[in-house]
Amino acid sequence: MSSILVIGASRGLGASLVDQYSKGTGNTVYATSRSDDLKSKEGIIYIGGIDVATESAGPELVSILKKSASSLDIVVITAGYFGTESFDEPSWEKQLKMYTTSSIAPVFLIHHLVKAGLLAKGSKIILVSSESGSITLRHESEGGGNYGHHASKAALNMTGKLLSLDLKSKGIVVGIVHPGFMRTEMTKSVGFDKFWDDGGAVTADEAAKSLVEFIDGFNLSKTGEYWAPRGPRDIGTAEAVLGKDLATPLKLPW
Fold first, then answer.
1. Rounded to two decimals, what is the model's pTM?
2. How many beta carbons lie within 10 A of that of residue 202, not counting itself?
3. Residue 195 — very low, low, confident or very high, per pLDDT cuts 50/70/90?
4. What is the dihedral of CA 38, 186, 164, 18, to 10 degrees?
5. For the chain, does the N or the C end have fewer beta carbons within 10 angstroms?
6. How wide is the angle at C-alpha 253 spanned by C-alphas 199 and 91, nearest 5°?
7. At what angle do helices 147-167 and 92-99 cross, to 10 degrees?
8. H/E/C letters for each residue in the chain?
């Protein structure tokens, strides 16, 4: 019996995580979205109107959670935004939104959850990042571009590391993960569906299953680390940069 909060649960990986966790006996899953369209049901409490890109998201979320939750065992922040751009056509607006959503919002959300007493010793925080945030894994074979996407995920990785240092003394675990290259509306919307087959993309349900299993075994000895639960299979530069015969799960380089 666990109490789980999934932030960014309306579709894709977030929705699949909610489905996976709700199947656990006695679990209570709190799931946030920006819209109010999702309806709560047995074992799942939807919290609409939470836009992580706003400063008020943390206090609003806490005020609702405190009505029914005394503590949270697991928090997964999977809310994200991907806006494509290039060196020739960079986008100030898209970059600002990516940084705010990916790397600024988690600090404030976790701050409010901890200060409200909803996260305590034994709680686990999982920040959904991407292998695209690894500076080491960037390779000339993939070229440049998509500055906001890559750099905001690198910033998220740093945010996760710093949170782990601040929260370790409280016994709160922080993990940063690349959940896998997924066949989702997000990747399709930026034209990445053309890479699904060759890139080994999996469904959100498959990625969620791997992530749930990984989180179950994640503990304080690994806090602040950056992992790919599904290993190197969908990381195009993994072998070129890290070599062959890589492990699954795979600890990623910054």
1. 0.95
2. 21
3. low
4. 30
5. N
6. 65
7. 20
8. CCEEEEECCCCHHHHHHHHHHHCCCCCEEEEECCCCCCCCECCEEEECCCCCCCCCHHHHHHHHHCCCCCCCCEEEECCCCCCCCCCCCCCHHHHHHHHHHHHHHHHHHHHHHHHCCCCCCCCEEEEECCHHHCCCCCCCCCCCCCHHHHHHHHHHHHHHHHHHHHHHHHCCEEEEECCCCECCHHHHHCCHHHHCCCCCCECHHHHHHHHHHHHHHCCHHHCCCEEECCCCCCCCCHHHHHCCCCCCCEECCC
At 142, the amino acid letter reads E
Quote the CA–CA distance of 247 and 238 in Å, as a whole number: 11
Tell me the two tokens of residue 41.
Answer: 């049901």
19-51 burial string, b = 16+ CB within 10 Å, else e? bbbbeeeebbbbbbbbeeebeeeeebbbbbebe
d(C-alpha 128, C-alpha 145), whole Å: 21
| Contact in structure between 133 and 150 (CB atoms under 8 Å) | yes
Which candidate, 112, 55, 103, places its Cα nearest to that of 79? 103
For the beta carbon of residue 203, count every other beta carbon within 10 angstroms: 15
Whether residue 244 contacts residue 226, with contact meaning beta carbons closer than 8 Å, is answered with no
